[in-house]
Write a structure and sequence with these properties.
- The complex is a heterodimer of chains A (354) and B (216).
- Chain A is of the alpha/beta class.
- Chain A folds into 2 domains: 209 residues, Thiamin diphosphate (ThDP)-binding fold, Pyr/PP domains (Rossmann fold), CATH 3.40.50.970; 111 residues, Rossmann fold.
- Chain A contains 13 helices and 14 strands.
- Chain A is globular.
- Chain B is an alpha/beta fold and 216 residues long.
- Chain B has a single domain, classed as P-loop containing nucleotide triphosphate hydrolases (Rossmann fold, 3-Layer(aba) Sandwich).
- Helices cover 34% and strands 20% of the residues of chain B.
- Chain B has 9 helices and 8 strands.
- In chain B, strand 7, helix 9 and strand 8 form a beta-alpha-beta unit.
- Classes of the chains: A alpha/beta (354), B alpha/beta (216).
- Chains A and B meet through strand 1, helix 2, strand 8 and helix 10 of A and loops of B.
Chain lengths: 354, 216
């Protein structure tokens, strides 16, 4: 039957996490990500893993905190309102320098909002949704294949830099079905980590997992150290896809599902003779600043296409130092723009210029 | 042709696409047709999405009253009772995925059994990760039967990889469908294939599917 399977985005996250050696999942159901939990509930007991439906999102993220402290691969998933509830725990995990994966399959907000797709958690994900000085590595898949691939990458990066990673998806990619090629299953690695709390067996010093530093100079030192790591990540881990940018005079910037819609619009614009390309950030933090900066030297203007009232647009303007005009094409509340709407916005940006 | 056709199967096996196409086919044959969407599991993709097109063809569409609204409530409309009791229409029922979706069927089962003029079809896609082999398909089939309290009468092979489906994708699933059919002693009613591939697939009883256009 071949290697490819037909999967929902949410299922791809779950299966990819299992194949990446994750054996601990804690969550609480919420549309449109419930399939992640449902899939884990079916699979984990069969492979000796842990699936636990917690009493709340807050409990779930603190269970993640606990397992993360032992150095095991661990994850939780939710959708926007549920991810808001997890913020305290996420800040603690970041403050304790522990790796884990948090999945946000975004829906419309604020408040309880709706259950249809959205990208309006961009600020929350990339600017530190909880309190304190910290970042998450934020990956934005735009296909079911990437749901799987970036889940595996998120675990790796989180471990490499000892920090939480977030997969920032949306309801459409979570629910849509596409063929996926899955990575070979990887057995969980239980190698001793120099920081993990696994019991000293009276043979080594205690490892301490903690985010409380009452002495301000100590806390400042911790934050400085962490930001040195963040600096390295910003220099080395930014990822993006460049589409038809070679001779582009205008640049569309979009991630996730908005990038798929935008790609169709870029192709349609090219047919009309408009020289436009697309930069699709794959990492939202670190944001691919260098790529945008380079594009700013080449193009006359940018169009940020988002399922929010305009959040990423701020990073586009920062990255390009406002050297070029940056316009917004957006829908919100669970609505998705059509390729025609994006095309119209491109035409408006270029002023009919070819 | 039985009066009531029910489509059940694993989550994401393609029940909705098959049900919508079956309703259209019955209509083309000149029958009075009603399609009921009683999927209480998935609020995202559902047969009610094709409502306009179906109603344009003169097919009655019965959908969950609150689907797509601000009330996230898995309530079933009373018209579904009408559908299983009214004997003047050909009824197509699109049931939710897995055993959880099939529980919704339980309340209609006494009427369906009493009339005894139904097909209960198991839709299977062997490219889905949790029904990749015959054994797992049998497990899902038994779970659904236990939940719905209605025994299956046939199998629909809907093996596909979405856009990446080739004639070979479908053909390589035929032996699996055959083994499944022998194991559970149910006939394969048809093999569903997207329309542009239907003529190239060498299989018996190919049912061509018209799929909704993709926007992205």
């Amino acid at each position: 039957m071949g290697n490819k399977v037909l999967m929902k985005g949410n299922e791809a996250i779950a299966e990819a996490a299992i194949r990446a050696g994750c054996r601990h999942y804690f969550g609480y159901p919420i549309t449109p990500q419930t399939e992640v939990a449902a899939y884990m509930a079916k699979r984990m007991p069969k492979i000796g893993g842990v699936f636990l439906q917690a009493e709340s999102e807050i409990a779930a993220i603190n269970m993640v905190y606990g397992v993360a402290g032992t150095g095991r691969r661990v994850m939780t998933s939710s959708s926007s309102p549920g991810v808001s509830l997890k913020q305290e725990g996420i800040s603690y995990i970041a403050g304790s320098d522990l790796p884990c994966l948090i999945v946000d399959v975004q829906r419309g907000g604020p408040g309880l909002g709706g259950i249809q797709p959205s990208q309006s958690d961009y600020f929350q994900a990339t600017k530190g949704g909880g309190h304190g000085d910290y970042h998450l590595i934020v990956l934005a898949p735009s296909s079911v294949q990437e749901m799987a691939d970036l889940t595996a990458l998120a675990f790796e990066l989180a471990e490499k830099y000892r920090m939480p990673a977030m997969l920032l998806a949306d309801g459409t990619i979570g629910q849509m079905m596409e063929p996926v090629e899955l990575a070979e299953p990887q057995e969980p690695k239980f190698e001793e980590k120099p920081w993990a709390v696994t019991g000293t067996k009276c043979k080594r010093e205690h490892h301490i997992v903690n985010s409380l530093y009452l002495a301000p100079d100590e806390l400042e030192k911790k934050n400085f150290e962490r930001y040195e790591r963040y600096h390295t990540i910003e220099q080395t881990e930014a990822r993006y896809e460049s589409f038809m940018m070679d001779d582009a005079e205008y640049c569309v910037v979009a991630f996730g599902i908005a990038a798929r819609v935008s790609k169709n619009a870029v192709v349609a614009a090219r047919k009309k003779g408009i020289k436009v390309g697309l930069i699709r950030p794959i990492t939202l933090w670190p944001f691919p600043k260098a790529a945008l900066e380079k594009a700013a030297a080449q193009v006359k203007g940018f169009l940020s296409v988002e399922l929010s009232m305009g959040q990423m647009i701020e990073d586009v303007r920062l990255a390009t130092h406002d050297a070029r005009k940056v316009e917004l094409c957006c829908r919100t509340g669970g609505m998705i723009m059509s390729p025609d709407e994006v095309l119209a916005a491109i035409e408006k940006l270029t002023g009919g210029e070819k | 042709m039985k009066r009531v056709t029910l489509f059940c199967g694993h989550y994401g096996s393609g029940k909705t696409n098959v049900a919508v196409n079956m309703a259209a086919e019955l209509k083309r044959q000149g029958k009075t047709v009603a399609l009921a969407d009683i999927d209480i599991v998935n609020p995202y993709f559902r047969s009610a999405d094709s409502r306009q097109e179906l109603e344009g063809q003169g097919i009655e569409v019965i959908a969950l009253p609150f689907a797509g609204s601000n009330v996230d409530l898995p309530a079933l409309p009373q018209e579904v009772y009408g559908l299983v009791q009214r004997r003047d229409v050909y009824a197509v029922l699109d049931v939710g995925g897995d055993d959880r979706g099939a529980y919704a069927l339980g309340r209609y089962v006494p009427y369906i059994r009493e009339e005894n003029n139904y097909e209960m079809l198991f839709v299977v896609n062997f490219c889905r990760p949790l029904t990749r082999d015959v054994q797992s398909a049998v497990e899902v089939l038994r779970e659904i039967e236990a939940a719905s309290q209605l025994p299956f009468t046939g199998i629909v092979n809907n093996t596909n990889l979405g856009d990446a489906t080739t004639a070979e994708t479908v053909e390589s699933s035929l032996p699996l469908a055959q083994t499944l059919s022998e194991q559970v002693k149910l006939p394969i009613c048809f093999t569903a294939v997207k329309r542009d591939l239907a003529e190239r697939v060498r299989a018996e009883n190919v049912f061509p599917l018209k799929l909704q256009p993709k926007l992205f």
